[in-house]
Amino acid sequence: MELPEGIRRRLEDFSRNVFFDHSGTRTTPDEKDTFLPHDKRVLSSLHLQMSLYFNMWFFPLWWISETVMLQLKYPALPDYYKFILVTVLILMTLIEAIRLFLGYSGNLQEKVPELAGFWLLSILLQFPLILFQLFNEAILIQPLERGVHVVLAIFILTQALSGFVALRDMVRHTGRQFHLRQFD
């Protein structure tokens, strides 16, 4: 399943502008040897991939515990928090599925737009939503919820950090390859 061309192009432009270090386009003699056309250096991040793998197995546990806890505390919640928590659960489920897919495809296939989409979803949507559920005491946080939210927040934070590093490395590598091919 590929991203639509318009979204893919916008994510490429965004990631090129944000993650590309314009001062580091010159290569040293040691670096020049690693960027020859016959080189197939793997740019995938092992840390990111391991975190995505464990998150994929943890997420159903998080979802089940969150659904059970929401069902238990639902009668005691005010009406507006009932609506907010159900909406947050649905949104987080959809976003997490998309985010894990983009993370897997972007990291393993070394695709910058997918990895940039994964990173943006992590930082702009998932992290604020999990922090809302973790620190808002008005939603009657249960001990099980706090535990699974802390684990998911740690997953999201480590994936955002390792995703940033992987994305920066991929963009730099692509930029260097482009500059080297100009002179061939």
Q: What key attributes describe this structure?
A:
0% strand, single chain, elongated, 184 residues
**What is the mean pLDDT?**
87
Q: Strand portion, in percent?
A: under 5%
Reading the helices and strands in chain order gives HHHHHH
Q: Count the DSSP helices.
A: 6
Strand tally is: 0
Distance between the termini: 34 Å
Percentage of residues assigned to helices: over 70%
Q: Could you say which structural class the secondary elements and strand pairing correspond to?
A: mainly alpha
Rg is 20 Å
Unreliable runs:
31-37
User: Major sheet, described briefly?
Assistant: none
Shape: elongated
Q: Can you describe this structure?
A:
The chain is mostly helical and 184 residues long. 78% of the residues lie in helices and 0% in strands. The model is unreliable at 31-37 (pLDDT under 50).
